[in-house]
Specification:
alpha/beta, Rossmann fold, two-stranded antiparallel sheet, 5 helices, 10 strands, globular
Length: 213
Amino acid sequence: MSDEKRSERLIEGPAGQIELIIDEPSGPPRGVVVVSHPQPLLGGSPHHLVPLTLARKLCAEGWRVVRPSFRGVGKSTGVHDGGIGESEDSIIVLKHLQRSYPDLPIALVGFSFGAHVFGRVVCALEDTLHAVALLGLPVGLVPGGRLYEPLALPVECLLLHGEHDEMAPLANLLDWARPERRPVVVYPASDHFFKGCLAQVAQHVARHLNHAS
């Protein structure tokens, strides 16, 4: 993934403009994947190591990668809305991409706060997405006092989590997953940012998207 194949686009959303950073693969794209970033209140942006690593890997695998900036980040206008407005914006982004690339499948990969936002999007959409992967999904009350409502996610969503996630405790996610025995892929000894195994996690996500039907 090189800067020569990266572009920026601004589209209109409910709170003003939404910035999209788009990375093009070297050949014809196999699909479009939207990658979200962590909590803006803690400095999260599309340039954070986790979404950037995911974008590089997925672009190398042939995906056109779109990284939106949430409200108040980069060139996106508006103010942080706790996931509600960000979900509305994300649906606008998806509809824009569906119009722009009608012949390509579209996938979502969310991380941290961005995983919660994309989870809300998946629950609200009637359309079927090619694949969804949510990393470090926060559920319930997390350190820092933020509360994330549990979501009725489709079973097909791939959930990846660090065993020692200090920002979105694994115990909360497992309590949510246990009643329906939803599978959760846990990376032992890893933290919220998948330190020491981020490349392996990115490969796992790429494999999930590449093999989805």
